[in-house]
Amino acid sequence: MGNHFSLKSLSFYGGAISFVVILFSVVTAYGEANLKAAQKIDGRYQIPAQTLPGCLKSEQLILLVQQSGVYLTGSLLAADAADTLGRRAAERPAMTGTWDDKRLTLQGAATYLPQCQGEVKIQGTIVQQTLKGTLSLSAAPGDSPFTATQEATQPKQSQGH
Question: What is the pTM of this model?
C-alpha cells in the first residue's frame, strides 16, 4: 500500500489535476468572452399590404419564422388564413434561410399563398422587433420594400389531464 502513495505519484497526479483545472478555466473564460448565441428572432411578423408586388397587393401577410441558432425556417401566409394554416405551416415550413449578424434571408415556395405561384425571397434586417427588408416573387419583377412588426408572443396555456 505504501508504494501507491509515493511523493513521485502524488506530485504527478496533483500536477495533472491542476493542469486540467487551469485548462478548463481558460476555455471557460474564452467562451464567456467571445462566444455569443444568436439573437432570438423567431415569431410572427405582420407585413402590411400597401407595397407588396403582384398577387399580394391586396393582402396583409404574416411571416412565421422559426429559428435554430443561425438557421431559419418560415412560411408566408395571408393574415386571414394564419389561424387555420398556422399550425400546418409551423410543422411544414415552406422557406429556409439564415440569420447572420442582424441580417435575415428566407427563400422558398409560396406554398401557403394559393393565389401566388413560384418562389418567394425575403431579405432584411431586424432591429428590436421590426423587420425592414425586401420581398420578391419569381412571378413579379423587382423587389418590394416592406416593414413588418413582430407580434407579441402569447404565453402558452397549460392543458390539464
Answer: 0.73
Nearest in space to 103 (alpha carbons), one of 38, 34, 35, 33: 38
Q: Is 109 helix (H, G, I), strand (E, B) or coil?
A: strand
How do residues 18-32 score in pLDDT, each as one tens digit?
999 999 999 999 998
Q: Which three cell numbers stand for residue 86?
A: 398556422
Q: Give the three cell numbers for residue 53.
A: 408586388
Distance CA 64, CA 129 (A): 14
Does CATH number 1.10.1670 belong to domain 43-150? no
Q: Is the dihedral of CA 84, 91, 149, 119 positive or negative?
A: negative
Q: Give CA–CA dist 80/120, Å, rounded.
A: 19
> In which residue ranges of the chain is pLDDT below 70?
1-4, 51, 58, 153-161
CB-based contacts of 148, cutoff 8 Å, min separation 6: 45, 46, 47, 48, 63, 130, 131, 132, 133
| Strand-pair partners of 139 | none
Angle at 118 between CA 117 and CA 121, to 5 degrees: 125
The CA angle 78-83-87, to the nearest 5 degrees, is 100
